[in-house]
């Protein structure tokens, strides 16, 4: 691409980049990951942070979030495949830690407004310790 076209493209993308940057700076889960907001953290490594939901819907209600800001499933790319797998593996580990692995549990990712997503930083809900209601939806 010729430099002038590149410059024009960069100028067009700048407001979008600024908006995304602002979103992550005001994102409550980014703040929890960065220790800028309080949370009951149950697990942390270089890829994910897990903490208890502030409004638990069951005895076990843990959120597993990527340390990097990804707004939702809609923004996932092929490069995130290992990260998503890791979120599930940590979820399973935490189910064992909370003693709900044998009784059973639910792992949910809500996406967008119809999916019931309220915090736009990707998160995996781990919910257990009571019989889940069914059907969903
Ligand atoms: P969603 O509806 O987006 O799938 O789930 C968001 C979840 O985040 C909700 O269950 C809500 O209770 C939880 N949540 C929202 N704000 C906070 C917070 O500041 N701290 C914690 N620990 N959980 C939060
Ligand atoms: Zn975030």
Put the structure in a nutshell.
By secondary structure, this protein is an alpha+beta fold. Helices cover 34% and strands 18% of the residues.
CATH superfamily: HIT-like
Strand arrangement, largest sheet?
A: 1-2-3-5-4
Estimate what percentage of residues fall within beta strands: 15-25%
Q: Average pLDDT, to the nearest integer?
A: 91
Care to describe what's here?
- The chain has one domain (3-128): HIT family, subunit A (2-Layer Sandwich).
- Helices cover 34% and strands 18% of the residues.
- It contains 3 helices and 5 strands, in the order H-H-E-E-E-H-E-E.
- Strands 1-2-3-5-4 form a 5-stranded antiparallel β-sheet, with helices on one face.
- A hairpin with a 3-residue loop joins strand 1 and strand 2 (48-52).
- The chain is elongated, with a radius of gyration of 18 Å.
- The chain binds guanosine-5'-monophosphate (5GP) and zinc ion.
- Zinc ion (ZN) is lined by residues 24, 27, 29-30, 69, 121.
- Residues 28, 39, 51, 53-55, 63, 110, 116-119 line the site of guanosine-5'-monophosphate.
Q: What's the layout of helices and strands?
A:
Layout: H1 3-25, H2 28-33, E1 41-44, E2 48-52, E3 60-66, H3 81-97, E4 105-108, E5 124-128
Antiparallel strand pairs: 1-2, 2-3, 3-5, 4-5
The structure holds guanosine-5'-monophosphate (5GP) and zinc ion.
